[in-house]
Design a protein that fits this description.
The structure is a single chain. With 536 residues, the chain is of the alpha+beta class. Among the domains are: 235 residues, FAD/NAD(P)-binding domain; 102 residues, Glutaredoxin (3-Layer(aba) Sandwich). The strands form five sheets. Strands 1, 2, 8, 9, 10, 11, 17 and 18 form an eight-stranded mixed sheet that branches. Strands 6-5-13-14-15-12-16-19 form an eight-stranded mixed sheet. Strands 23-24-22-25-26 form a five-stranded mixed sheet, with helices on both faces. It is globular. Keywords: FAD, Flavoprotein.
Length: 536
């Protein structure tokens, strides 16, 4: 059993800022050293943007918490330089099974096609996830990148000004003052920053509770996601089983609404429930127990002047579907390149409003899917339950019924259809790589497509030529020319060309498509770049 969550990684140390006669101004401060805050800090540091991370804790999170990390966030982590340790340690899976009572009604494969570097999902305890991000941050610090992390530094006051944000930070040595040009709040679902600014969520809280138990046991269950509706060990409720590294298994059990949460978390009440599920002879140890309530809520706006919210601080969804940490990493992936352009004076501050537009759009998509999952898992009327059970019965035999089964639609990346940053879209190219969509990976000569994209604007040319370098308004565009000769599997053609003979894609620094054409047109590219940076 891992005990890394017991070891301080960044213990409190007095900083020079605490002895300064005037508040020290930092370009960017991130509140929260969870996965989202660390991801934001790494992204900033890699692009030489000075960043300070403040956290009242000094170690990784207790308990596995978030465990399912999807393909797109893994690709983001590759860009951040820490995808390999996550996948190497994680339990890789692509398939799942759905049970009704004791019967398997169907199975599914979340990545049915070949030609992707990363799997559909890995399962990895959050404490490992945070550890590898922290180690990457320290690597960057050792390389001379401008990043700091301070444990035992609790932000107790946030005061937005016109052109900066003032902070009061409490420490074991007493409080001190800081200022920052930009504040990124990644301080979780109970965000103190949000509370200090008098902001709140809008959305739904569902009348149901679920028990999470991480158990250590030797078991020969396959590496799959198993979900039960109305199983014999938890009648009229649901259950979920996932494998994690180190022989840790995640079990979710639906409990209902009218419960005593503190009583239900006690081992003497948890263990009989687990024995009923696993069998009386299975030996296991409890590692972590928690109870959660389904919530599908978000802030009305994620950007409030120079204070920007990301991750659970900005939005919450029910855990089934693995949309929390996954969508949070996509928040910072969307934000950081825009913030850098604004800070460098290469884009107007209004570009940050498109972070709000695109990630609220993404949050609403997640909330919609999560709400539908919750309504299917926990029917609110007898008629709804009868409909659900009929769908489950039919799905065992009839394929048409299976898309209606919703045991938690699993996280997929958001395509920003209608974004103000989207440029032209040439007819005849594949729908899946239209403007606003994340790039789809493909094997190419010498490796993988996504490894050659990211952190900058690029022109991806297939079966045609583009300049190796182009500049528009101080922003460089790097050319990447490939041909079908670089496409041994045909995946690049299938995903980016379709029936077209050639194509040119303008890619954003977050690997989303900004615009595309079937031939290179310099004037059109320059116009699309100005649109994609909010300068049009």
């Amino acid at each position: 059993m891992s005990k890394i969550f017991e070891t301080p990684l960044y213990p409190y140390q007095r900083s020079a800022d605490q002895d300064a006669s005037q508040p020290v101004r930092h370009p960017v401060i991130v509140i929260g050293a969870g996965p989202i805050g660390l991801g934001a800090a790494i992204d900033l540091a890699q692009q030489d943007v000075p960043v300070l991370v403040l956290d009242d804790n000094d170690k990784v999170s207790w308990g596995s918490r978030a465990i399912c990390f999807a393909k797109r966030p893994l690709e983001i982590l590759d860009r951040l330089g820490c995808g390999d340790p996550m996948v190497d340690k994680g339990v890789v899976w692509n398939t799942g099974k759905v049970f009704f009572d004791e019967r398997q009604v169907y199975g599914f494969n979340l990545l049915p096609e070949e030609g992707h570097r990363r799997p559909a999902f890995i399962n990895l305890q959050q404490y490992y996830f945070e550890l590898y991000l922290y180690e990457r941050l320290r690597e960057l610090e050792a390389e001379g990148k401008p990043v700091q992390i301070r444990g035992g530094n609790k932000v107790v006051s946030v005061t937005p000004k016109d052109d900066y944000v003032a902070l009061t930070v409490d420490t074991p040595d007493g409080p001190y003052q800081l200022e920052t040009d930009w504040l990124i709040a990644c301080d979780g679902a109970g965000s103190p920053t949000r509370a200090m600014m008098g902001l709140d969520f809008i959305g739904r809280v569902f009348e149901d509770n679920f028990l999470i138990a991480d158990v250590v046991m030797k078991a020969d269950f396959p590496t799959e996601r198993w979900f039960w509706f109305d199983p014999p060990f938890n009648r009229n409720q649901s259950a979920l089983l996932h494998k994690q590294p180190d022989d840790v298994w995640r079990i979710d059990l639906q409990l209902g609404w009218d419960i005593d949460k503190e009583e239900e978390k006690k081992p003497e009440n948890v263990i009989p429930r687990l024995k009923a599920m696993l069998g009386p002879d299975v030996e296991f140890d409890l590692e972590w127990v928690s109870i959660y309530t389904f919530q599908c809520r978000r802030m009305e706006k994620f950007r409030h002047g120079r204070v920007i919210f990301a991750g659970d601080a900005a939005h919450q969804v029910s855990p089934f579907g693995a949309r929390g940490a996954n969508s949070g990493l996509q928040d910072t992936d969307n934000l950081i390149w825009k913030l850098k352009l604004v800070m460098d004076g290469k884009a107007p501050e209004s570009l940050l409003d498109t972070y709000d537009w695109e990630r609220v759009y993404g949050a609403d998509e997640n909330i919609l899917n999560s709400s539908r999952s919750t309504d299917f898992i926990t029917p609110k009327s007898e008629v709804s339950r009868q409909f659900r059970d009929a769908v489950l019965d039919l799905s065992e035999t009839y394929e048409f019924a299976r898309p209606f089964v919703n045991s938690g639609r699993l996280s997929v990346p958001c395509t920003y259809d209608g974004s103000p940053l989207n440029g032209p879209d040439a007819a005849g190219l594949p729908v899946r790589t239209r403007p606003g969509s994340p790039a789809v990976d493909a094997p190419v000569s010498g490796g993988w497509l996504l490894d050659r994209l990211g952190d900058k604007f690029q022109l991806l040319a297939i079966n045609t030529e583009v300049p190796a370098n182009l500049e528009e308004g101080g922003i460089a565009i790097e050319g990447l020319s490939l041909s079908t000769g670089d496409d041994p599997s045909g995946a690049l053609k299938d995903r980016y060309l379709g029936k077209a003979a050639s194509a040119v894609y303008l890619m954003r620094p977050d690997q989303h498509v900004a615009a595309r054409w079937t031939a290179y047109d310099e004037t059109a590219v320059r116009a699309a770049l100005n649109t994609a940076t909010g300068r049009a």
